[in-house]
Amino acid sequence: MALEKAFITPINGSRSGETIPVLFNPTEYSLETSNQFQRTAVPGTSTPVTQFVNGNTQTLTMDLFFDSYEKQEDIRNYTKKVTSLLDIDPALHAPPVCEFHWASLNFKSTIEQITQKFTLFLDSGVPVRATLSVTFKEYRTLTEQLQTIHKESSDRTKRITVKQGDRLWQIAHREYEDSSLWRSIANANKISNPRILAVGTELVIPILK
Known about the structure:
Largest sheet: 7 strands, antiparallel
CATH topology of the largest domain: Elongation Factor Tu (Ef-tu), domain 3
Helix content: 10-25%
Structural class: alpha+beta
Order of helices and strands: EEEEEEHEEEHEHHE
Strand order of the largest sheet: 2-1-7-8-9-6-3
Shape: elongated
């Protein structure tokens, strides 16, 4: 059974819904995923405190092959349908968001970069063979991202006692694994100056909403 043909579809702007087929399916593609961490040096410790900041945009890269030698036709008539997706859409004031479809792969993205390489020409100099190296960057709206985040904490309020050297951001990192949530603890305990924590003070660690 032949593998279905890959294609690209703009999903917004003036070309929304247009199907842009590739002449030949890619022989391979790469998906790159990574996370970003912040490492903060704390005096008196042997290693920095590591805190998760955010995930990075997933990247899809591939080479698309185009050949029109048998038709003796300018290959740019085909490649420009893909490269034009980098152009600013007048309805959006930005390039369109696209989806790359191939079998089970459906990748919603913007096209970040295309490198064109022309490798065969007619006697007239017209190119009839080309390879496009394309980089797609995952696209998700803020609403889509927030729907996938499920921050949880303990099911009951916790209390701790401040020890020598404790800071609110350190406590937030221990309790929530996110030092940026120190303000929740400050608000729950009516702390006006987060830099001053008296040793022996009992703090309420609120449940995250």
